Amino acid sequence: MKILAIRGVLDSSTGHRFERSLMDLLREHQEPIGLDFSGLKYMTSAGVASFLRVSQRARERNLKLGILRPSQEVGMMLEFLGIAKHIPVFQSEEEMRAAMPETVQSLDVVEKYSIQSPEASSSGLASSGSHSSGVKGGILPTSYSGAGMAGGSSVSSDLRSPASGGSEEAFHMGQSMGRLSETLDGLTRNLKSLGKTMEDLQRTEHSLKEEFEKDRAARRSGKVQNSDGRSFAFSESGSGSGTAKARPGASGAVEVPVARMKDQAPGSASQARNARAGLETSAARRMSASQPAEMNRILECEQCGSKLRIYHAGRHLCPACKIEFEVETDGSTSYYEKLATS
To answer: Which residues of the chain fall short of a pLDDT of 50?
Structure first.
């Protein structure tokens, strides 16, 4: 069985060392691992995250983890987060060994490691050199190690007078509660941020699906939709067959009625037929000359900015802002005065 003495503070600066050391140990060994938290002052949200990742890896490898003698603050944190339900907490090494027997019994040796934070390294080195030979196990709180250096428990009792004991304990309890509140706030912020990120991803995915469905439906129906939500359809240029209607200012063939007179001589009737044939020929010639050139362009309306697909040259009407414009065969446009709309 391996016992790791965790001393100092488990935060963002020491969490990665703690996690890396435990991960390496989990890969190399199969025996139970005990974590001595008697020298651990407190854990931040980053330290809790590192500890949870280590416990998850231990469960994946079917290894046993145990916590030994946690402080009051760390114990409250483990109890509140529900970690104590999955990882057993012990108050003595004998109780831990009895609950988690070693897998290999060839040697009766207990290896001890120490992972210290920078702020607790100097005190840990001084205490280990003074009382390692007199105390079996070598895992003691900082207060006990200080008492051992001074000469026993009598000196430690003299240092703590009855007058200052209550206020000092209340001060440390206030510090512990403040750190607990800060750690819980950090965990809550991380959970809220994760939830908001998931909501944003779901909302973005939903909007992309809606946009894709609308785009596919618009392509099937031949409609185009611009960014303002205005949708309109374009029809291709019609064939030249049919009756041409005259419009003011519009170029095109105009049907000219030819009157038939019943009381006409055969010569005059032939002249009338020749005149009608000449008119039809000239009208067909004008129609072929004025036939709009076919094109396939996307233009932007200078009035409202809508995207328009143009299939032929000539006059057009923007369905969004109702402005009339003319497109030349070279793609140039000229706009007319905006029509009055009701």
So the answer is: 103-113, 121-122, 125-163, 227-229, 232, 234, 236-265, 342
118 with 65, same domain: the answer is: yes
Q: For the chain, how many structural domains are there in total?
A: 3
Statement: the pTM of the whole predicted model exceeds 0.70: no
Q: Are residues 278 and 296 in the same domain?
A: no
What is the spatial distance between Cα 270 and Cα 252, in angstroms, rounded to a whole number?
28
Q: Does 120 share its domain with 152?
A: yes
Amino acid at 276: R
Does residue 186 lie within any of the structural domains?
Answer: no
Say which residue the tokens 């497109």 belong to: 327
| Digit-coded pLDDT (tens) for 195-240 | 777 777 777 877 788 888 888 888 877 655 554 445 545 454 444 4
Structural domain containing residue 312: 231-236+292-335
Q: What residues have CB less than 8 Å from 58, skipping those under 6 apart?
A: 26, 33, 64, 65
Determine, yes or no, domain membership for 262: yes
Q: Residue 193 falls within a domain, yes or no? A: no
